[in-house]
Amino acid sequence: MVIDAVPCELLTAPGPESGSNALSFVIQVRRQLGLCRLVGALDAVLDSNARVAPFRILLQVPGSQVYSAIACGELLNGSEVYWAIAIGATAEEINQHWEWLEQNLLHTLSVFDNKEDIVSFVKGKVKALIAEETSSKLAEQEEDPEKFREALVKFESRFNFPEAEKLITYYSCCCWKGKVPRQGWLYLSINHLCFYSFFLGKELKLIIPWVEVQKLERTSNVFMTDTVRVTTANKERDFSTFLNIAEAFRIMEQLADVTLRRLLDNEIFELDPGLQDPTQITKRDLEARAQNELFRAFFRLPRKEKLHEVMDCSLWTPFSRCHTAGTMYTSDSYICFASKENGCCTVIIPLREVISIEKMEDTSLLPNPIIVSIRSKTAFQFIELKDRDTLVENLLQRFKEVNSNFPFPLVVEFLICEMLLFTSSHMRTGKQKHELVFWFVFFFNVCSCSQSREQIKESLWDDHFVEYGRTVCMFRTEKIRKLVAMGIPESLRGKLWLLFSDAQTDLASHPGYYVHLVEASMGRCCMAREEIERDLHRSLPEHPAFQSETGIAALRRVLTAYAHRNPKIGYCQSMNILTSVLLLYAKEEEAFWLLVAVCERMLPDYFNHRVIGAQVDQSVFEELIKEQLPELAEHMKDLTALASISLSWFLTLFLSIMPLESAVNVVDCFFYDGIKAIFQLGLAILEANAVDLCNSKDDGQALMILSRFLEHVKNEESPLPPIGNHHAFFSDDQEPSPVTEIANLIHDSYEKFGDHSVEQIEHMRYKHRIRVLQSHEDTTKQNVLRVVIPDVSFLPEDLEELYDLFKREHLLRCYWAGGSAVPERHDPSRPYAEQYRIDAQQFASLFRLLSPWTCGEHTELLAHRTFRLLDDNMDQLIEFKALASCLDVMYNGEMNEKIKLLYKLHIPPALTENERDSQSPLKNPLLSTSRPLVIGKSNGDAVDYQKQLKQMLKDLAKEKDTKTEKELPKMSQKEFIQFCKTLYSMFHEDPEENDLYQAIATVTTLLLQIGEVGQRSLSLGSGSDEFTEDLQPEASASEQDAVFTDTVKSPHKDSQPSPVTEGDWTVSFEHILASLLTEQSLVNFFEKPLELKPKLENAKLNQYSLRTNGMSCQSRSEHAKPNMQ
């Protein structure tokens, strides 16, 4: 609001100096007039935030016509700007503020030459104080331990998770159900997002596993301006009215990222040491991880760097002749500085470069100063450091550690003539020599006319080095960014790439490391080596440097050495193109460390078989297109086509699709600004072709438009000879295309799309990493289902739900299994069908939920037998296809298939030796062999089972000669007893229970007699006995002998050896099947239709409760398993 509306008095106090350029602080007092009282009353009633304080201290800038505010700056008299520095309710309070200004600020201002510097300094100082006060208030709001313990008890009682499910933090918020908010508590644990509400007598519980989250974003709706939306495969949930929504979202973002990458992307993901054990993760750990990752991304430092101190301070910047307000960051091996004003100044100081760290005398002009001296005879002065003594002590300790690990002095040479040199080494003999490639001579002979332009650039850079420094510790400002955008001179390119990427520090810190890698990797045969050899001659084949063995040999050594250094990455296509260009501007060892910097720091997770990092950035690029180029995004509804086209832009940094002399300018920007440079250049390219892309008819035409445009991006100022692009998609010039100057394209990219900060890009990466990982999971699922669907009779939607249950069971074990080796079960590098596997305990849980063969207490035993049967390779893990095939037999198989499965479950390997040793059921009267074989039925008819037995033996004898399937091993009496026990358990509580018991008793009696017939025939040494003589009229002795002889004495040559000895009681699968077929009630039981859908619905509801209820007694059940019957 304009202050003129409220009458005030200004009490002017003189500034630190007088004169036309003087600035002054003034105390403003609100006059207590009648009108003022009315306005004050209205302010108090209508808007408490709009009230003007009775006393204010303003910083006056005479003659200024610009309006800009620090906290609540307001425009006075339409011409002058006053900065509101402090406010007070009483004269005493405002006087205290004034005294602070006199003691801490007014004397400091005398060192400045002009009013702009004073305004900048005061502005930075006030903002720093505001930030410090905000941080202090947040620190005071840390959870009360007593309240947290109370929340933990409620969390455990409400959700019944095992103790291993650690609660991280909790928030009061609303969960929106349609248009109705439900007030409750949001609990964030290591594996789940949970919400609980009890409102108007209704209880609401939500459990959302982090691994099922597909999108996590801050959004708004018609009711709330700021909400957190959590999206899963089937549902969207909105949470709002957080006390601190920024903090809540940051913790949710970290938990989702850590859990998803830990469980779904363990191929390359390495957790911070503090996050290795999920049960030890705390809220503070997650906040530290977020700060660490942002710190490493901003300064592009190695992943191992851990942030230790973050302090507000000011750094003396000689190019501006003043102290620049900013923040100091210290880590294991670096001291970094970033100005509060974005892009003003950034400094990276490796401790490897430091000579000394000293405290200076504390004065009013230089409060709490320290001096950091480096090897290039430069010193950095930091002031206004709080807790300076502790900081210096910690820095000196880390400085000693760094120098004890790497005692070799760092020498940063700046030799212009090192351009285009390859180090051609005979590594095994230790001899090295520098050979000049033929292209070096070709370059100077052809392009001498362009040297004047290069000399101008070199002169500009030399001037810049004098003022800003020429080592890795140089002041990085907007001026150097402009020089980079113009294109680095050819003679300086290699060295500046080393400095901007900090590969120079790695090079100096690891003397002899590259030579050792080359020696260790030479002569080794591996898949990476084969792929490297295949791509060597595809790397810039049009370039003279790689048309001889000199360049090819150097490229081979660098790629092979890196594959040996990092076997997780090994070698990926596009690394050869990038390395080729690096070798053009750096020596071999330097090119190796540049490659390390790109693969492990600047493009993390790009170079692996799933290229997760590249896909994440492609997804970020799509969002930037929608944000920056909405018309193009609207025309091209599906941006995946653009993403597939632009993938090579990110993987090869435009080297594969632009002329080399232009693409190296892009690489210049990449080494200085990181991936941000590729994002903004990609947007500039799309904007330049937006009209043609909107008029394109299909993806192919869009691809041709972009390819032709990129082929005609030229660099007229380059001294390099024009070299054709072998990797371009199209090379036809049927239609002349306009030429685009690379410098103009880069300039446009910075001007129009350069406003995204590193922090914004990192947040976008968090969001889209979730989407990319879930997309990979969907791809895995679809490929597994595509393989399994032809082999089973389940509906596709039922099979999909079954897969989800299988995967969730795997993940439940990962959540709370403590020391279980997750990679043994989930390996993204394996074929799709083998990525998820479960163990015996997990299978038993699913068996109880899904199997139609419920056997009461016998179910657990049957589940473990089924697992042993399905575990073909005996690695104690099975895949989804095995589970689906087994359930398909139970639900959809023919009767003979179901009986065969049951039969296999009661012979080795499914049945163990311990399980055979059980009390014989022959004592049960139902199984007595003395019962008559003629049974009377309820309708008065009688069935002669001796006749049925004779007919069965005849049929088996006839089928024996025509069978081609491998015969099953014979079942011993103990195994048969277990088989009978399973059948009795299966019939329990069936509606036809009595009929089934009667039928199975009859069949069991028949089978016992068959087994005794075979046993007696073997013991007598002949194929007939008293029993067979009784059957002679219906079946000849020779037929029976053939059956029993084949059954007991001579198993099929391809079958497994029978465990029984000669003369033992045995019965075959054919005997059992034929006997069961004689009873209609048994046939009806095994052939009745079964539905999987109800079991799936029940399993989705009870899978969590079954697992959580069983975890508490897991140890007891594991000890009891060997004794289960």
From TrEMBL:
Rab-GAP TBC domain span: 487-674
GO biological process, one term: system process
This protein's record includes keyword Transmembrane helix: no
Record's keyword annotation contains Signal: no
Keywords: GTPase activation, Repeat
CDD domains: PH-GRAM1_TBC1D8, PH-GRAM2_TBC1D8
A Pfam family annotated for this UniProt entry: RabGAP-TBC
Gene Ontology MF terms: GTPase activator activity
Function: May act as a GTPase-activating protein for Rab family protein(s).
Protein name listed in UniProt: TBC1 domain family member 8
